[in-house]
Design a protein that fits this description.
By secondary structure, the protein is mainly β. It is built from no helices and 5 strands. It has a 5-stranded antiparallel β-sheet with strand order 4-3-2-1-5, with no helix packed on it. It is elongated. About 6% of the residues have low confidence.
Length: 108
């Protein structure tokens, strides 16, 4: 007989990542949540569940089998919420130098 396989560790679905949007499906204990959408927060390898914040603001822990990814984690790019005050950056040009009227043309 072949040697016994090592025990499988619970891992997150490679199609789901923190910040990914998911839709709930196949829930039996709380069927009223099926079809709702939320955002994955973090994965617990110990329980094999993702903490998902539903769009209504509540957090629940769900098995991967109950989550339908709404986008592929490999192509998922978290929304950049960085705000830059362009007025505080300055132009980097000496005073009195302007690009007015050049509309993208470059001087050589």
């Amino acid at each position: 007989p072949p040697p016994p396989s090592p025990p499988r560790l619970r891992t997150a679905d490679p199609m789901i990542a923190a910040g990914a949007r998911v839709r709930l499906r196949g829930l039996q204990a709380k069927p009223e949540l099926n079809g709702l959408e939320g955002t994955c927060r973090d994965f617990s390898a110990e329980s094999g569940r993702w903490t998902v914040r539903l769009d209504g603001g509540e957090d629940f822990a769900f098995k991967v089998a109950n989550l339908q990814p709404l986008q592929d984690a490999q192509t998922f790019v978290p929304k950049d919420t960085t705000r830059i005050d362009l007025n505080s950056l300055g132009s980097g040009r000496p005073k009195g130098v302007s690009l007015d009227g050049r509309c993208g043309a470059r001087e050589r």
